[in-house]
Amino acid sequence: MKLVNNSVVTEFILLGLSNSWELQLFLFFVFSVLYGAAVLGNLLIILTVITDSCLHTPMYFLLSNLSFIDMCQATFATPKMIADFLSKHKSITFQGCMSQIFFLHVFGGSEMVLLVAMAYDRYIAICKPLHYMTIMSRKVCTVLVGVSWAIGILHSASHLAFTVNLPFCGPNKVDNFFCDLPLVIKLACLDTYILEILVLTNSGLLSLICFLLLLVSYTVILATVHRQASGGTSKALSTLSAHVTVVVLFFGPLIFIYIWPFESFPIDKFISVFFTVFTPLLNPMIYTLRNKDVKEAVKKLRNRHIGSKHDF
Questions:
Q1: 218 vs 231, higher pLDDT
Q2: G-protein coupled receptors family 1 profile domain location, by residue (predicted)?
């Protein structure tokens, strides 16, 4: 999509997290470590799933794709935020701002749909175990991942279609460390009430549908697990608890955002940091610490790497 800027504004000023130089220097080191840990943690899960044949199952195929999205989610704005901590002039071009909006909603929308696909995978595994491998074939898993990306792209493109042509003729300060769509829309030189409703409807509807599907799926799964009295119940509950924890971490901030979508609160920046940095960091930790198969596979990958260094 070609970004055509017909407005006076050619760049936006990002106010960031703080004006204090000492605090910004401290945040530079903190977020550099957190960003590196998020990328390496998700990359470790992807490599573990690829290299360990025991993890070549639908659940871990979907998990590796979730890790890829989380890695992208952590990367679309965090590196610039880290660099801006060392810069006095925190600006971003019009095209760069539109790109951040696009990628934020692509990755956010895709992850929501992928979480629903992962819930469906657990529903089939627990409620219809005898038909699991037939229903959740590699082709079906690939289609589910493709659909999640397609919905994410369409969802984001629908936002960008009207945002890119808005007239920005003066105010250009965004009170965040990246171009957040509601904050950018408010800078347009026209009455944005209708646009704000469209944004809320678009994002809110997708979030609500995904959240309700997840709620129904996990309710049915938990009811099925409760009725079962087999040795696999504890393992199923352990896997489910990891999934539910990730869902809560993802949708918790979204619920706050959509209750007050166009009101500014001091906590807004914390939610933005949590969504773009901490969620991608916590997801691999949750799946690694609460999943015996992943922990064993990580150990094997580490031992294989250590053994190859000794051979060398």
A1: 218
A2: 41-287
